[in-house]
Design goal:
Elements (H helix, E strand, L loop, with lengths): L1 H26 L7 H33 L10 H25 L1 H7 L29 H5 L4 H17 L10 H6 L3 H7 L17 H6 L25 H16 L5 H9 L13 H17 L7
């Protein structure tokens, strides 16, 4: 019943806000939407939903099995149970999202969500299609804390609605108090940027406080306009199979190199861009170089023209 309520609530909401954004984009000649890109977003969401539906029985059974060993019970107090579930769910998402960005194996799954050069409300549906196969593992601590699996799935679906709605360029800034606590469209635009300064930043779903606490926050800066998409754009950005599997193919090529087994493992589990010979660099390395370059320029004496 809870999921039916979410579907009945969210479906007309999505149609309304996406329709309005499409209309405004057309009237203002913003070109935030394209037919091909929107179709791809819907396609990836459909594939993700099918996998999730097929696999749901498996992960719900696994979570219920772990629930037998829970050592807390907060269900007697709904005013405590649901807020704590929300907070627990949100920090779990932050952890999962950060792993997706800092471990290449999981980045190969998540990269589909970042592969578009456009950014609009339908980008929120551009799903990491294989994520349902492992996402439930992150929920195990929550069931051990006494949160029911069905409630965890419901809360995840509820926060996903918010996560989709921040994929917009039409809301520039929210009030300061809001931006200090919650993920805003401005924060999430940074997350989807390919600018070096913005890589692997703003991982939160609803609350931005985790990024502020753990050093992954970055404000959107007017002097560094956002470029959407990947650092290395796809050669064929509209090929459906290529969108899903291109990073897996890249990983396969790296694993075929004549290198020790331990180094091959690093190509799986180190951050994207890591290389044993320095032929490519991680986001952290690129950002360090950018900071050093900016510091060097700032320290140079200014020229005074007579």
């Amino acid at each position: 019943m809870k999921e039916q309520f979410l579907i009945l609530f969210s479906t007309p909401l999505y149609f309304l806000v996406i329709g309005v954004e499409m209309l405004l984009s057309h009237l203002h000649v913003k070109k935030y939407y394209s037919i091909k890109d929107t179709f791809i977003n819907i396609y990836l969401c459909t594939v993700n939903s099918v996998i999730d539906l097929i696999f749901r029985l498996v992960y719900v059974v696994v979570l219920w099995w772990f629930f037998r060993f829970h050592f807390m019970d907060l269900s007697f107090n709904p005013f405590l149970y649901w807020p704590l579930l929300f907070i627990g769910e949100d920090i779990i998402f932050y952890i999962e999202h950060r792993v997706d960005h800092y471990c290449r194996l999981f980045w190969a799954v998540h990269v589909t969500h970042h592969s578009s050069g456009q950014f609009n409300l339908t980008t929120g549906f551009r799903s990491s299609v294989f994520q349902p196969l492992y996402r439930f593992i992150y929920f195990i601590p929550l069931v051990l804390l006494g949160f029911r699996p069905v409630d965890i799935v419901f809360m995840y679906s509820l926060t996903q609605i918010y996560g989709i709605l921040v994929h917009t360029q039409y809301i520039k800034k929210m009030p300061e108090w809001f931006e200090a606590v919650f993920v805003s469209p401005s924060h999430h635009r940074v997350h989807h940027a390919s600018n070096i300064r913005y890589l692997d930043r703003n991982m939160g779903m609803v609350l931005i406080i985790w990024d502020r606490m753990f050093g992954t926050f970055q404000a959107e800066l007017p002097e560094d306009p956002i470029r959407y998409g990947l650092v290395k754009p796809l050669e064929n950005p509209h090929h459906l199979a290529n969108i899903i599997f291109h990073e897996f193919e890249s990983v396969r090529k790296d694993l075929q190199k004549d290198i020790p087994f331990f180094i091959k493992l690093k190509y799986l589990f180190m951050p994207p861009g890591w290389s044993h010979d320095g032929s490519s660099r991680t986001a952290t390395e690129l950002r360090k170089e950018l900071v050093e370059e900016e510091t060097s320029l700032a320290q140079q004496p200014s020229l005074v023209h007579g």
